[in-house]
Each structure stands twice: as structure tokens, then as C-alpha cells.
Design brief:
Length: 232
Amino acid sequence: MTVMATPLGKRLSRIWDKPNFLDFFQNYSSRPVLKVKKGSLIFYEGDKPGKIFYIKSGFVKLFHASESGKDAIIYLYGPGSVLGLRALTSQDELLQHSAEAITDTQVITLSREEYLKAMEEHPEYIIDLLHLFIDRLDYTERKLSGFILTDVTARVANFIVNVAKRFGEKNGTRITIPVPLTHQRIAEFVGSFRETVTGSIQKLEKAGCIEFEGKTLTITNLKTLEGFIQER
């Protein structure tokens, strides 16, 4: 038997294929789908959940509450994302952030015992976990690059491009962002004031690269939008 004939070997032969976490969670979770209402917390910072979470539908913001009471938005999750892996695999088992549903959301959970059993029976799933860490690292690096940009318009453009690449729905040359966004929410993600972000959005609209109708944002010219990042 060659190495490539084993499940792990086969997974290694297509190591860059995106994992199918929906099948993984549905196969190993013994719990019903959790329905979370918009504005509800899925978990709290400092908890020991003893499980990981898969977003079947909806969008979730990961945040850290400062001593002043102001939330620092850390991460945006959407369909196909996995939350809580750090707490499940770390020695202290603690969650470092809180998670709030920003839309009605469906979540599948997998207990620590179910997770460890799956890893023992199917070590090829470890490759899928590597994808999670790589994606998180890539996102963190892109976000850090965005905060290095001193120009708020460049930071707003960087945020929109990042969200579009992860969740955007393409229709010809147009890309619609399925996440409901307001000027205030974008300001929270880019670390700026709403009034300043409003001015930046108006600038991007005037340049013809985005359209903002209600809470729906559409990229009409991705190349022009990316130019606002590269020029800064």
C-alpha cells in the first residue's frame, strides 16, 4: 500500500482543495442546528465552551470589549466559517473574544469529545484545520495592512475589498456584499469615526467604484476601488 492510497495521503495529494466543513460538522455533530437571532451573543469572552462552532448561514462579528466599554471588532465571519477552535485546542480552553450575530444565523456545534474522535478516526481532517489557521492568518495580515494605512478612505476601500473577496456575490463586473453594512458598522471595522467614514464612502461613490443602497453595498469597479488602497 502506498502512502497516497490512505485517506491522509489522498488529502495531501490535493492539499490546497478547500475543505467541506458542512459535511464534517453534519457527520460528527450530535446536536440540532442552533438558530441565533440578530444581535444575540453566540459566546462570551472568557468562557470555556468545550465545543467549536460552524456558521451554516448568517454573519457574525468577533469582538473584544475594552475597559471603556467600547467594542473592538476583531473579525468578520460568514457562511462556512468555524469559530472557537483556539479555545478547543489551547491549554487554558478559554475564549479570547465574544461573538455576536449581526444577522439571523444558523450554527452547528461540535463538542470537544466529538472533535477529538473525528481527528482520531480521520487524521486527514487535520489538513482542513490547517486551512482554517492559514485563512485566519491571511485575514489578520490584510487587516493589519489596512490599519497601517493612515488615510481613512484607503482603509475603507481595503475593508470592502477584503469582504468582497471572502463573501462577495459576483454578477458580471459587479460584486454585491451580502453582509448588511452601515456607515457605523464599517467605521467599527476600520477603527474610525462614522462621520469620517461617511465622507470616504461618498468619495468612493463619486469615483464610480461602489454603490450604497440602504445596507447593501455593491462594488461596481473593483480595479478603481483597489487603486484607492495602492495609492496610499
